[in-house]
Amino acid sequence: MYTALIESVVRILQKANFNVADLAETKPRCFDIVARKDNIVLLIKVLYNVDSLKPEAAEEMKKLTKILQASPIVIGERFKFDFLERGVVYTRYGLPVINLATFYDFVVDGVYPYIYSAPGGYYVKLDSEKIRAAREKLGLSIGDMAKLLGVSRRTVKKYEEGTDTTLSTAAKIEEIIGTFAIKEIDLINFVEADVNEEEEIEGEEGEIIEQLRVIGLSVYPVRQAPFDAVSQVEDDQILTGFKQVREIEKRAKLLGRISEAINVEAAYITDRVCRKKVESVVFVLKEELYSVSSAKDFISLLREKSCEG
Fold first, then answer.
1. Could you tell me the CATH number of the domain that includes residue 166?
2. What is the pLDDT, as a whole number, of residue 204?
3. Measured between alpha carbons, how far is 18 from 41 in angstroms, rounded to an integer?
């Protein structure tokens, strides 16, 4: 089921003309698919039952969301014993969760969902300004509106200040004002996350991070991805690998697919001689890193090696 779901997500993205890279070959991973179209970058976690999403993976996704200016989405079909419904957004550890049909509507047809699930049932976000303008145009006072809805004046004021409500109440409001009054749920900007650059990593990997910081790059370590950090200087971002694993070129290939999909540079810092380049990934020897004196020179080194590759 999981494999079929991954394949379906990839086909939907390709149908919508996204550049896509899937990470099915690597573990652990906080996301399974990365995709880009124009300025939209999606980090997608696919789980048949979203109850199995781990909080650590969710936190890593939120971290990458901020660093890469991406949008995280969890796609599944069940939550515990219930099926997810089309057109409804659920939440797990602060991430938006939708089913495959909702994802298709969003990505292919450009139809955003309007309903979200929360304790107590389904809710919607009201277009408060539209409701107020329509009420005033109809010559209805807040008291009139309250009587028609069967609620207090205070509740009506809350609706006009942006308080969410149930589907049934939203339908009553729309019937009274004669127009659509529900806001779509913005899946692209659903998550706001803070990032801690100063996370400390010990050992050889920590030394590499420290050297990158010494020459002027901001470095954000990542724990559950085919790369180990995102390095950044001004507007330049570099997916950075530095784990000295046995099959380093295989890992670099996967890193390269991701960097090409989202149009970001990639580098792998290694203590042994490898090919100059694997796909879009540039290999940098540790001794070369230590010979560089500034972030600008490091970027220049990557681009020189990329041209040589």
1. 1.10.260.40
2. 85
3. 9
Query: Same domain for 19 and 106?
Result: yes
**Of 187, 189, 186, nearest to 69 (Cα)?**
189
Residue range 13-33, pLDDT digits in tens: 999 999 999 987 777 789 999
Could you tell me if 70 and 41 are in contact, meaning their C-beta atoms sit under 8 angstroms apart?
A: yes
277-278 and 265-270: which strand pairing?
A: unpaired
Mean pLDDT of the chain: 91
Model-wide pTM > 0.85: yes
C-alpha span between 252 and 281 (Å, rounded): 6
Name the helix (H) or strand (E) containing 305. helix 295-308
Tokens, residue 69: 């200016």
For residues 35 and 297, give the distance between their C-alpha atoms in angstroms, rounded to a whole number: 30
Instruction: Tell whether 285 is covered by a domain.
Output: yes
Look up the domain containing 108 and give its range: 2-113
Q: Please determine, for residue 309, whether its predicted confidence score (pLDDT) is greater than 60.
A: no
* Domain shared by 100 and 24, yes or no: yes
